[in-house]
Each structure stands twice: as structure tokens, then as C-alpha cells.
Design brief:
mainly alpha
């Protein structure tokens, strides 16, 4: 028999998207920051998320990290990472990155078989680079502007473009189709807890270092997403315009400080991408 717990996560995700959509359509807040015209709503959403994290998610993640053996945590991360490689492959191929897409396909094949359903990441040991591509990055690659920053209730930092891409990312998640439902929801809960546990050190540093944690998180997220869309090589025009205008093919490429190494530099003939 299905219980209410079995549908909690999907309903929460739908609620978060609905609240965010209402905020955007109503134009309920303004801000001096052109990237954050909904700052009032976003700060309220951030405060709500922070309260949920402090009272529920962070304590559970801390207990999980302290009690669960390291090899089990690694296996959980590898398992869900292997599932994400499948959707990453699709997005790399949609972006015309054939080599990266086939690398992701090979990673899934190796880790799903010799890696015992992805519990072991033997593909990385074999030198096959892991990519993290989602549909928001694909839209950015083909010139869709990021739009304003948006802090989604429960789901965290995003942009209008990335929020629009969430249904596609959910559709492309193989775990969405796991049956029975109770196993799917248990796995989804473990996935969230494992991801939060992996960020404990970073969140502790953020709490100690940032005077305005909201601004620090917002600016860090926007810079990271811009770097991800451009595979670490951000044209100067895009960096100066905050991704609102697509750069020309002659734009000088200037890597962002501390950005990750490019997964696969875009060829000269590839279309311009917008953050």
C-alpha cells in the first residue's frame, strides 16, 4: 500500500517550483543587483532553506558521515554518480560534444558491469574523465540566457533558465523510474543525505568566513554555472556582461579564477554559449 511518505519528495519539488514561478510572474521584489531582481524573495527562500538545513538536513548528514563507513559512503556516491553519467552523456551529445558524450557512455558501461552496478568507479581509474552536464548547461550552450538568480525553496540556488530545465533533468534521471516506489524514495533520501554530507566541510567554512552568506552563495553559484556552461573557458564579453549577451566568436577567452579545468575546450566552429 502506498503511504504519504512515498510521494513526499516529488510533492516538495513541485511545491518549490510553483512558489518560485509565482515569485517570478508577480515580480514581487526588486534589487539593485541586475542579476538578482528577486532578491527579497530569494533571501526569504534562503532563510527558509537555511532553517530546514540547520534543524533537519545538516544534523542527519553529520550523523550519516560519522556513523557510515567510508567505503559505504564512497559506494553510494559512485552509484548515483554512475546514474548521472547517463544523463550527462545525453547532454554532451546534445551540445555536439561527441567525444565527451561517448566517454560518458563508456563510463556507464564499464561502471555498471565491472564496477558492480556503479558501486566502484573503475572508469575514472582507467582514465575516463567524468563530466557533469545537465540540461540547463545545454540550454546555455545553445545561447539561452541564464536570466535572474532564483533561490528555490528546498531545492536551493538556481536561475530562471536552470529552473526551466529542471523537469528535463528529472525526466533524464534513471532513478526516477525505479520500482517499487518505496525503494525509489528511500534511495532518493539517501542520495540527498550523502550529497549534503559531502558538503559539510564547505558549509562550515562558509558559515565561518562569509559576512553575508546569501550573497556569497549567490555569487559563487552564478560564477560556477557560468564556468560550467563554458567548460571553464569564459569569454571576456560573457564575464563582463554576466552572461546576458552571447559572445561573438572573436571574444577573448579568459578563464575564471579557481574555475575547474575545462572538460573539453569548445572548437572554434561551435556555437557561442550564454551563461
Amino acid at each position: 500500500m502506498k503511504s504519504k511518505k512515498m510521494t513526499t519528495l516529488p510533492r516538495l519539488s513541485g511545491l518549490a517550483l510553483a512558489v518560485a514561478a509565482c515569485a517570478v510572474l508577480s515580480g514581487c521584489a526588486t534589487s539593485a543587483n541586475p542579476q538578482d531582481p528577486l532578491e527579497k524573495f530569494n533571501r526569504a527562500s534562503f532563510a527558509f532553506n537555511d532553517a530546514v538545513d540547520r534543524t533537519v538536513l545538516k544534523p542527519v548528514a553529520t550523523g550519516y558521515k560519522n556513523v557510515t563507513p567510508g567505503f559505504v559512503q564512497t559506494g553510494v556516491g559512485n552509484f548515483f554518480g554512475n546514474l548521472s553519467d547517463a544523463w550527462s552523456a545525453v547532454n554532451n551529445l546534445l551540445q555536439g560534444k561527441g567525444e565527451a558524450g561517448m566517454t560518458d557512455v563508456t563510463r556507464v558501461a564499464l561502471n555498471s558491469t565491472f564496477g558492480i552496478l556503479g558501486l566502484l568507479d573503475i572508469a575514472s581509474e582507467a582514465g575516463l574523465q567524468k563530466h557533469n552536464e545537465d540540461f540547463g548547461q545545454t540550454l546555455g550552450y545553445w545561447g539561452v540566457p541564464s536570466g535572474p538568480f532564483l533561490m528555490l525553496p528546498l531545492l536551493g540556488p538556481s536561475t530562471i533558465r536552470d529552473t526551466t530545465a529542471l523537469p528535463a533533468d528529472r525526466w533524464g534521471d534513471p532513478w526516477k523510474y525505479k520500482d517499487p516506489h518505496n525503494w525509489r524514495n528511500i534511495g532518493s533520501g539517501i542520495r540527498v543525505i550523502d550529497q549534503r554530507a559531502s558538503l559539510l566541510d564547505a558549509s562550515n567554512l562558509l558559515e565561518e568566513a562569509a559576512l553575508d552568506r546569501y550573497e556569497f552563495l549567490r555569487d559563487g553559484y552564478l560564477q560556477r554555472r557560468q564556468s560550467q556552461v563554458y567548460d571553464g573557458n569564459v569569454p571576456r564579453a560573457a564575464a563582463e556582461d554576466d552572461g546576458d549577451d552571447a559572445p561573438t566568436s572573436s571574444s577573448q577567452v579568459v578563464p575564471l579564477p579557481a574555475s575547474p579545468a575545462p572538460a573539453e575546450p569548445a572548437a572554434a566552429e561551435t556555437p557561442a554559449k550564454t551563461q
